[in-house]
Amino acid sequence: MADINYLWAPPAPSSLPVRGTSARFPVNRLFFVGRNYQAHAREMGTSVDKASMRPVYFTKFAAMLAESGTTAPYPPETQDYHHEMELIVALGEDGFRVSTQQAAGMIYGYACGLDMTRRDLQAGAKAKGNPWDVAKNVEAGAVASEIVPADGRVLTHGEISLKVNGQLRQNGDLADMIWTIPEIIADLSTYYHLKAGDLIYTGTPEGVGPVQPGDHLDGWIEGVGALSFDIGPAE
């Protein structure tokens, strides 16, 4: 195939390291599950009835991905930038309209993640009934650790926690997720042809809160690993 004559060099594809190998995981799309822990839903002023509701999703550009260990500026146009610690599910197979049993087989691995949020912009958009893309789709606002191969594991429990400057902010258990990992994958596959390389951030436990320039964040998930993230000066 002849070389394509781009007007300028296209950006490098997003990727993450994989534990135990020199290979990198090529990242396709970033999906996020909202309100997947009941206590977090309550702290956001709502509740979730699994019997009558389906998961809520939003997306971020893959270009917004930031590896663990990154320092990123406090973003513009916000005075209330929040952390949300999450388990990431990394898909290694394609799937469309899959069952929960098939969904389990699509899991390549797991990672620790942060869904960083301009909370004031989100609250303002919600109050007006407007989309809140700019509140969530923040540059370097999707933090991820290395990918840990699942080796057939479907995580059902394990501590998930976050400290800011050494102070515990979030502490929960994966067992508290309203929708399980296979349920999330199966439901999301009714909307999209899921692809190998897709990342799914599975929701955050209670305790979300603001960060400031100079803050250091440390998160960990039992059986998965840890991440770190530093907030730089405001832009």
Report on the structure:
This protein has 235 residues and is mostly beta strands. 14% of the residues lie in helices and 35% in strands. The chain contains 5 helices and 18 strands. The chain has helices at 38-43, 100-104, 119-128, 133-136, 181-188; strands at residues 15-17, 24-26, 30-34, 56-60, 65-67, 71-74, 81-83, 85-91, 107-115, 117-118, 142-144, 148-149, 159-164, 167-173, 199-201, 209-210, 216-221, 225-234. The protein is globular, with a radius of gyration of 17 Å. 38% of the residues are buried. The mean pLDDT is 95.
CATH T-level fold name: Fumarylacetoacetate hydrolase, domain 2
Give the tally of β-strands.
18
So how many helices? 5
Structural class: mainly beta
Beta fraction: 35-45%
Describe the structure concisely for a colleague.
This protein is mostly beta strands and 235 residues long. The chain is built from five helices and 18 strands.
Write the topology of this structure.
Blueprint lengths: L14 E3 L6 E3 L3 E5 L3 H6 L12 E5 L4 E3 L3 E4 L6 E3 L1 E7 L8 H5 L2 E9 L1 E2 H10 L4 H4 L5 E3 L3 E2 L9 E6 L2 E7 L7 H8 L10 E3 L7 E2 L5 E6 L3 E10 L1
Parallel strand pairs: 3-15, 5-11, 6-18
Antiparallel strand pairs: 1-2, 3-4, 7-10, 7-16, 8-9, 8-15, 9-11, 9-12, 13-14, 13-17, 17-18
Relevant terms:
Fumarylacetoacetate hydrolase family protein; five-stranded mixed sheet; Fumarylacetoacetase_C_sf; metal-binding; Fumarylacetoacetate hydrolase, domain 2; mainly beta; 235 residues; single chain; eight-stranded mixed sheet
